[in-house]
Amino acid sequence: MESDWNRLKKIRHVVMDMDGTIYQGKKLYPTTLPFLALLRSFGIGYTFLTNNSSRGIPEYLKHLEDFGIRVESRQMVSSTINTVDYLRRNRPDIQRLFLLGTKSFREEIVSYGFTDVPMEEEPEAVVAAFDPKLDFERLCKAAWWIRHGKLWICTHPDLECPTELDTTLVDCGSVAACLRTVSGKEPIVLGKPNREMMDTILTVNHVRADETLMCGDRMYTDIQLAVNSGVAGVLISPLPHEQVPGNIATWTVPHLGVLGEWLSRAREI
Ligand SMILES: [Mg+2]
Known about the structure:
The model has no long low-confidence stretch (mean pLDDT about 95). By secondary structure, the chain is α/β, with parallel strands linked by helices. It has 2 domains: about 1-50 and about 195-269, HAD superfamily/HAD-like (Rossmann fold, 3-Layer(aba) Sandwich), CATH 3.40.50.1000; about 80-190, HAD superfamily/HAD-like (Rossmann fold, 3-Layer(aba) Sandwich), CATH 3.40.50.1000. The strands form 4 sheets. Strands 5-4-1-13-14-15 form a 6-stranded parallel sheet, sandwiched between helices. It has a 5-stranded parallel sheet with strand order 7-6-8-9-12, sandwiched between helices. Strands 2-3 form a two-stranded antiparallel ribbon. The chain has helices spanning about 1-10, 30-40, 55-65, 80-90, 105-110, 135-145, 170-185, 195-205, 220-230, 255-269; strands spanning about 15, 25, 25-30, 45-50, 75-80, 95-100, 115, 125-130, 150-155, 160, 170, 190, 210-215, 230-235, 250-255. Helix 9 links the parallel strand 13 (about 210-215) and strand 14 (about 230-235). The structure holds magnesium ion. Magnesium ion binds near residues 20, 21, 216 and 217.
């Protein structure tokens, strides 16, 4: 256990998933605000990280503010930002995109200097994001361009988006599976668990992987990201660590309050 305490003692930055980690739907977890206050009192920085590309950063900041959480825009990272970073870094020649996504997603991409190519014009690449109003004609057109060899990006691999409604919100990963099936072509999948997302956060906050924690409630995105980027992963789960099937997290806690207790204790040892 001693090495665990040493590892916790070194933490200077905490990256948090949002839904299922700091709140559930419209309900903020009671441990969230005290946990954030504790981080501030220790001088530990924090970033919120979401794969959901249906909302823009200003919408997320407003969403957090409605819960009483005030953060700067650099503390909020989405898979849309990851997509922009990826294209700028790896394919600076690409500017004209065929976009499957919400109005705010398309506006956000355009705000970074890309062109939202209309149906009748030829794009340089296709980007599929989470789109609760997915248009069948646009889906078919995306498949057509992908089949004709255009580079294609899926903003994140989540198969479904959490909801309190009596329905299944088909997310980007499932739409990508459909496009992959019909075109026979593989996408570039960004968002968690692609380590590029964490690398950007470490660079922006001037911290090392061993000084960072990643907290989340989903194994194949949040915790896999921690594993892929070499940071400690904290799984939020009602089950004890050993009872979580295929648990690859460093630690498992029922809520952030317990992690806060551990961080406090590590500083006293
Ligand atoms: Mg989550």
